[in-house]
Each structure stands twice: as structure tokens, then as C-alpha cells.
Amino acid sequence: RSVYDDQPNAHQRFMEKLDACIRNHDREIEKMCNFHHQGFVDAITELLKVRADAEKLKVQVTDTNRRLQDAGKEVIAQTEEIIRCRVQQRNITTVVEKLQLCLPVLEMYSKLKEQMNVKRYYSALKTMEQLENLYLPRVSQYRFCQIMIENLPKLREEIKEISMSDLKDFLESIRKHSDRIGETAMKQAQQQKTFSTSLQKQNNINYGRNMHVGRSRILESKNEITLKRTFEEDDEHEEEVLTAQDLVDFSPVYRCLHIYSVLGDGEIFENYYRKQRRKQARLVLQPQSSMHETVEGYRRYFSQIVGFFVVEDHILHVTQGLVTRTYTDELWNMALSRIIAVLRTHSSYCSDPDLVLELKNLIVVFADTLQGYGFPVNRLFDLLFEIRDQYNETLLKKWSGLFRDIFEADNYSPIPVANEEEYKIIISKFPFQDPELDKQSFPKKLPMSQSVPQIYIQVKEFIYASLKFSESLHRSSTEIDDMLRKSTNLLLTRTLSCCLQNLIKKPHIGLTELVQIIINTTHLEQACKYLEDFISNITNISQVTVHTARLYGLSTFKDARHAAEGEIYTKLNQKIDEFIQIADYDWTMSESDGRASGYLMDLINFLRSTFQVFTHLPGKVAQTACMSACQHLSMSLMQMLLDSELKQISMGAIQQFNLDVIQCELFASSEPVPGFQGDTLQLAFIDLRQV
Is Transport included in the keywords of this UniProt record (predicted)? Predict the structure, then answer.
């Protein structure tokens, strides 16, 4: 810096000093070289000597190397062969080790394919699980393992689809076989109950053994035949007891449940199964429109429902969680409401009591069967009480027709009995007792007509028919007795009473028939106590029981008798009016004919013959009829005499009219009906006599 900055010509001086310094250094170097030059010359000389030896050594080394190379070529070749063999051996060992790792994987995958082919899907899933967790991780670096890993989810989906397809086939199968399953279950339940029911009928139901021996023997023989048939049927079906498992293969459900559980989709499967079964339940509960026309329609309907719930009960007990008791109870309550609504609707169309009875028996078997599987059926038995009222209505309609047929076929004349055998036959059918008649010799006549024992028999048949419905309803004998008495009261007070009232009012029923009807009702009224005994013998309930209802037949027959009596009075008066209408008085005649008018004599003869028929009537009825007829006759004659259109009347006409009145008085005094005191009957004509 001082060279360039301080003084002028400083650079030149610097260069001069620098040259001086260089010359000093060159002199020192020259001195050094001169000092070592001899050593350098000596070294070069030594090197030149060594050069010749180095060349000779080189030639020798080259020759030695050539000879070694020629000698080592074979060793090198063998060494390379050894190296190659050892590499191959190492590779083989590695391959064996890797194959030992891969072979179990390949075996398991082959096993998986085989299980898929034979449809062992649950085992296939277990194999997949072992592959994924145990075998494939060991060899995951290989490409074929990656292919396997990619295929496993596809196989799972395939298994799910196949198992779901099997489940759908199973659901379709049980839908088709539900009626057969239900029919088998109902038959088994019925067979289990038949023996005890038959014994109960034989021991607890006594069909009038003390009072009606003949009928009792017939019924006892029927019971024996029923028991015999029951034992025979039990023997026939003992070897053919089928269950739901025998009719339907449940393995698809178990398999599908296990598969979905293993796959972690158990809840999805449960929801699907329950949803499909609810749909099937709705289809099963949907009745056919013509179901009410035949018993088979009801039987198929009940069989399908029983089959459905038998399957559900089986699934409930053999699977864990697929269906629960809560689910089945909910499904049953829904079904029960629907069943009751359907039965109410369709049973209302049934007009045949036999069909209603068959329906009741089916409902009882249906209820007993499902009750055996743990389903509550109290509402069904409550429904049976509603159907019982309808059954009684159909019975009443049927018996109304029977009563009408009996009344139309009756000749309304006393029953002729030719010998004692005929008499015993009638007595066995109707409880008739008359010591006075028993003393008479054959042939003789019973006071009632043929319709009386027939009506009595039909009333007993009605009680039997009503009893049939009361059986198997799980009710006490007292309740059955009460039901029988109530239905019998309805028969007497409504059906029979209505038929009697209609019969009495029919125009072709004459006085003779009315008299016989009164007699018939009297005997039927007396037979009511035997009907009460008959019901007591059937139910084994004594009549002295506080709650035992009484039959109202007495009032029924009394009302019918009063109606018949009133109709007798009316018809008598109508007949008198008919005779009066043919009267032809000549009110201007000069003198009488000397004898009573012909129409009046015919009328008196008619009354006399009619009152002779009244001898079988109670005395008061005959007397009332006779007094009513005489009063009506007197009033009719007085109206004729005091007619406002009658302007004049001669003495001869008065005398002729007097002769007719005299005949009336003579008729009254002749006591056409016994039992009048003094001139009571003649007082009917006293006003006419005064006029």
C-alpha cells in the first residue's frame, strides 16, 4: 500500500529491491545444488545398475506368471463349477423353505375351494379366517397370495348370496308346507287330548240314565264306539308321528345364521328374516273370500297359521337371538287380532249350525295346539262365547223349521195305541203318566197328538246340539248347565212360542185343531220338569243349586194356550157370524112357520157338536168358550132385531123370532158344557128375551 500510495517513484524502488532479493535467492539455490550434485550423480549411477537387474526380474516374473496361469486354468474351472453348484444348492434350499411356507396356504385354499364346491359354506368361512389370520401373512410377499387375498372378499360375498338364496328357498318352502305342518301339529294335539276327553264324556256326562234308559244305552254304546275308534286311530298314527323337522329342512336357516354371524352381519340377517316372516304372516292371515262356505276352508286357514307359529317356535328354541319371545308374542298378538276379526266376519255368514259347530271344534283344536306351544289363547275362547250365541241363533232357526214341519205334519188328533208295545215306545219318547188311562184296555188313545212326543224329542236334541258346542271350552259344569238352560229357554220362549203363535193364527186351523193344541201345550208344560231333570243329569248339577236357572216353558205354553183359547173364542164368534149372515127373516110375514129357523138349528147343532169336543179341555176354558158363544149369539140376534134399517115388523115375524130365541134358551138350559151353576148360561139370553 505504501508503494502505491506514499511516495512518487516508490514502485520503481520496490521493483529494484525485489530484483535484488531474487538474485540473493538464486545464489543460495546454486550453492545448494553445487553441494548436492555429487550425491545426485551417484544415485543415477546406482539406478542404471539396478535397471538391468529389474529387467531380468521382470522377465522371470512374467514367465512364472505365465506358467502359473497355465497351471490354474483347470482349478479355476472347477472352482467356478463348485461355486455354481453351491449357489444352486442354496437356491434349492431357499425354494424348499419358501414352498414349505406356501404349501399350507395352497392346501388351505384348495380345501376352501373344495368346501365351496360341496356347499360347506360355514366351514369355508372358518378356512378363510385361518388363511387370513395364520397362513397368508407368512407369504404375503408373493403375487399369488395377493390374488388370494383379493379373492377372499369375493368368496365371502358369494357365500352370503348363496346362503341368502337358500334362505329364500327355505322361506318359500315353509310357506308351502305351513298348512301341512299345522295340520300335523293340530292332529297331534287332538290325539293327545282325545283319550282324556273321551273318558271325561263317559264319566262326567250322564245322558239321562235314570229316566230314559233306552236313550242312555244308545249313547253309552256310541261312547264305547268313540273310544274304540280313538284307540284304533292312536294305534294307526303312533308310528307316523311327524314333526316340523320331518316336514321342513331347517338347515338353511342355521347355516345362513352362522354364516352371517361369522361375517359380523348377524343383525342384518335377523332383521331380514323377521321382515320376511312378517310379510308371510300377513299373507297367511289373509283368508279366502269363500272360506266360510266349507269346513275345509277354515281348516286350511287354521293349519297355515299353526304351521307358521310352530316354525317360529322351533326357530325360537333352536337358535339364539334370531327370534325372541318378545318378537313371537308381538307377532302372535298381531295375528290373534287379525284372526278374531276374520272369524267374526266369516262366521257371521254361516247359517248352518253343523258348520258353526265344526268351526268351533277347529277353533278349540287350534287354540289347544298353540297353547301347547306357549301362546296365550284366552281371547280365542272369549270369541267362542260370541260364536256360541251365533251357533244358538242358527240352532234356533233350524229348530224353528223342524217345529214348523212337525206342526204341519200333525193331524191334531189323539194318538191311537193298538197294543202295549206301541204304548211303551211312546212312553220311552215322552214322559206321559195317566193312571186312569193305564187302567183302560187296548186299543186306546192318548190325549195328545203326535206332535207332542216329537216336539219333546226335538227339544232334547236341541239340548244335545247345544251341549256339543259347550264341550272342550274349559268351562265348569255349572257354567255349562247355565248355558244349556239359557239356550233351552230361548228355544222355548222364542222359537217354539213363535211357532205356536203362528200356528194358532193360521186360517186353516179350526176349532178342533185349536182344542188339540191346548191339550198338547198342557202336556208339554207338564214335561218341562223332566227337561230340567234331563239337563241336570247331563251336567251333574243338582236343581237345588242356588245359581241354577229354571226353564221358562211354563209361561211359554201358558201364553200359547191363552192365545189358542182366544182364537177359539174368535173363531166361534166368526162361525156364529157366518150362520147369522145366512138368516133370512121375513119381517112382514103374517104368521110364524111354527118351528125355529133352519139356520139357527144348524148353528145350535154346530155349537153342540163343537162343545162335545171341548170335553178334553180344562172346564174353565170350555165354560168360557160356551158363555162367550152364547153372549155373542144373543148380541147378534139383538142387533138384527134392533137394526135401524128395519122400518117395520109384523106379529108373525115376532113370533118366528121368539121361536128362535126359545131354541137358544133351550140350548143354554141343556148344559152343553158341564160346570155351570143354575141358570148362569141362560142369563146370556135374558136381555134378548126382554126385548
Answer: yes
Q: How many structural domains are present in the chain?
A: 3
Q: Do 282 and 330 reside in the same domain of the chain?
A: yes
Round to whole Å and give the CA distance between 564 and 501. Answer: 8
CA dist., res. 509 & res. 524, Å (int) = 20
Q: Tell me: do 532 and 653 sit in the same domain.
A: no
Furthest C-alpha separation in the chain: 228
pTM beyond 0.85:
no
Buried b (16+ CB within 10 A) or exposed e, 647-671: eeeeebbeebbebbbebbbebbeee
Residues 654, 526: one domain? no
Concatenating the DSSP letter of every residue in 171-227 gives HHHHHHHHHHHHHHHHHHHHHHHHHHHHHHHHHH---STTT-HHHHHHHHHHHHHHH
Q: CATH number for the domain including 323?
A: 1.20.1310
Q: 567: which residues sit within 8 A by CB, 6+ positions away?
A: 504, 505, 509, 514
Q: Residue 682: give its domain's CATH number.
A: 1.20.58.670
The Cα–Cα gap between 615 and 167 comes to 86
What are the Cα distances from residue 499, in Å, to 448, 493, 504, 559? 18, 10, 9, 12
**Is 596 in a helix, a strand, or coil?**
coil
Residue 407 shares a structural domain with residue 477: yes
- Residues ≥6 apart with Cβ < 8 Å to 513: 412
- Structural domain boundaries enclosing 169: 153-198+244-375
d(CA 310, CA 624): 72
For 65-84, b/e burial (b = at least 16 CB within 10 A) is eeeeeeeeeeeeeeeeeeee
Residues in the chain: 691
Query: How far apart are the C-alpha atoms of 442 and 412, rounded to whole Å?
Result: 21
| Average pLDDT along the chain, 691 residues, taken 10 residues at a time | 68 86 92 85 86 89 91 89 94 89 86 86 83 82 84 85 84 82 84 64 47 38 41 45 67 81 82 87 82 78 87 84 85 90 82 84 87 87 84 88 90 86 86 80 84 90 87 78 85 86 84 81 84 83 58 72 81 86 84 84 87 72 84 88 85 88 87 78 85 85
Residue after which a domain boundary falls, among 325, 351, 375:
375
Q: Are 417 and 427 in contact (CB under 8 A)?
A: no
Q: What is the CA 483 to chain-centroid distance, rounded? A: 24
**Are both 266 and 357 inside the same structural domain?**
yes
Do 359 and 453 lie in a common domain?
no
Please indicate, yes or no, if residue 492 is contained in any of the structural domains: yes
Q: Is residue 674 part of a domain?
A: yes
Q: Are 682 and 669 in contact (CB under 8 A)?
A: yes
Cα distances from 280 to residues 108, 178, 328, 449, in angstroms, run: 41, 10, 14, 61
Peptide linkage before 443 cis (omega within 30 of 0): yes
Q: Sign of the C-alpha dihedral, residues 81, 87, 92, 95?
A: negative
Q: Is the Cβ–Cβ distance between 208 and 215 less than 8 Å?
A: yes
Residues 537 and 604 in one domain: no
In a domain? residue 9: no
CA distance 35 to 31: 6
Secondary structure of residue 301 in the 3-state scheme? helix
